[in-house]
Amino acid sequence: MHKTMRLIMLGGLGVTLVLAAGCGSTKPLHLEARFSQIEIGRSNATDVLNLLPAKGALHTDSSVSVFNKKGWSREVGIATFSQKQSTAKRVVYVQRRSSLTSEKIYLLIQSVIPQDLLELPYENDMRKHIAILRYCHEAMIDDARPFNEDQETESVIGLGRTALGVAILQVDKRPREAYKLLRKEGFDFDHPTLNTCHAALRQDADNIYTVAIRSKATPDPFTGW
Question: Which long-range contacts (CB under 8 A, 24 or more apart) does 65-68 make?
């Protein structure tokens, strides 16, 4: 009897370790490559809808949200379109990887930034960069609002939103390190539940910027975007 129980316990431990290893995988998830193909200012609504799977998709007149889960991983992508030109003006992508011992986040926002915000007379570059981060944070909240009734979508988006909020506070508190936002290594900050994270900002065109947040030990989110 004792031998049988021991074998059951060992078998259960083996399954747990396999699950934990799988959850810690850094293999790209299903929606990641699809959303990375959306070209801000160029891809139209038809292009985007053809790229994205119908399963897990929710729609409004000017945006589409897609949710996907596999094992302990969750991912949400939202594409928002310009009402005048019907081209993509912003992509919000959040990936959440959970395991028995940790939780990791990968947030990427690529957006058209209003010209009037970029042309304000900022005291220095740091203030301009913080303004861009804040704009993206607010835009993320607005883009997700139509889909908040879906609890799984809200959970993943909420984690990304909080991570970006903490990053903005930390950049504001540590102005001498703000230049790291534009460096490859990124700006490191501590998150209450995600531990060490990296924030980065990249200018892709005159008025198009990409903001990225990632937990330590996750792949560089700019890769492939």
Answer: 65/144, 65/146, 65/147, 65/150, 65/153, 66/31, 67/150, 67/152, 67/153, 67/156, 68/29, 68/30, 68/31
